[in-house]
């Protein structure tokens, strides 16, 4: 009876998953118990799922953060396992009451043997092939024991049969009593175990093959990753090499450009230094003679002193005869220096940096004095300058006056549609369309009068929409080429759009006081540049950058700079170029299709090459 009880207890201490004695047993919500490590393995098989399904009853248990250690421990079972492990196992083969301690366990006989019985067992011919396990290895957990199961109904009987239909082991008595009449499929337990082990081995073999298949896949991924990593390393190496070479080339180019600037400007500086030296020598000469002659502390009395004094007076008179300094000479030399500028290659490879150029401007006197009021590039690549008295003068990029059109039309603003038709804004803020042959078209636009809108300007975008800005109304009206009523209005947010308004991509460029703004088609200011002086003006370059001109009208100096579409400075194009001082502060900026920059005052057109 004791042996049967031990066998039942031993079976109860086995984990249903690993079939070994429980290690750190954990409860599931369904009350089934498993080893902590077995539950972790089961949970790991389901990826990131936090629901653990019981292998026996399929009930689900929530495992927060996949931390199995937080599940309750089966303390009673844990204590029983410790008590059983602490009990010595005695030989089950000896017939004496004082049984010695066992040293081995025979898997095939299902018995524990002491040293004496183990020696006898090993010498029996039928037992030579039996699998014998040392108790030290069993207790340490290195090997697991396959025990014969004892029937729960008949504790003295081994469960030597297995019923497929009931999925349970049974003794012979149970088979006869419970399984035969129902025609259950019953086989010997050993046959089932062998079949089961073979099935497990087949599954293990397939799992090994599948694992090998996926391992090859993982190895392949690793190889691909290594290839990508090698590409990254090689590209990084090439980039660093290109960067170092580029830096070296840039440094060399920079030194060459600086040397070129130095060479060009030093010639001018030497000329100016020589003029300065000559003037200073004359100052010294005048000062020395004047000091000697006008020294009244001693009056010359004798003949020699009088002669010397007369000579010095004559020298001073000769020095005084020299003409006053000619400011034109240093101005001309300075002009040569001021014409030198750095031209950055914005549209080309940045590594090219740019080149040193001389700012050269053609100075063209306009046919009508102090009347310029608008300027725009023509479809054929020329520049049209409009007059508020009447007429539109056309100039080529070399400064030649090609023709004058609309001689009787007051020009306040001018633009061109995509089919080359003229869009003219007159002094009454009326818009009129003309054919390329200057024929007036019968298209009416409902614009604001000068009383309501104030001074107006005009531009046309790439979609042939016409924009009219009003200084007094502080807004911009948009018209279609078909004329009629305004299709929408763009508020200027409290500032007055003054002079030239320009379309730039999805923005409008407007000017007010000392500020240039880029606004969207709803009037929202996207970018702003302030502190540009009195009434700056902007235009779009052929390279799709923004040019801004600033004029010091008091002394007649104009500067033109290039900016990005976010109004960040790129480079200076024209620096303090001397122009004829205009009678009124009104000017326009445009660029020829061929790249020349046109700057127009009320009296003159300057074309910078």
UniProtKB/TrEMBL annotation:
Single Gene Ontology MF annotation: ubiquitin protein ligase activity
Metal-binding as UniProt keyword: yes
Domain B box-type residues, every copy: 86-135, 146-189
GO CC term, one of those recorded: nucleoplasm
Start and end residues of each RING-type domain: 15-58
Protein's UniProt keywords contain NAD: no
UniProt-listed PANTHER family: BONUS, ISOFORM C-RELATED (PTHR25462), MEIOTIC P26, ISOFORM F (PTHR25462:SF296)
Protein name: Uncharacterized protein
Lineage of the species this protein comes from: Eukaryota, Metazoa, Echinodermata, Eleutherozoa, Echinozoa
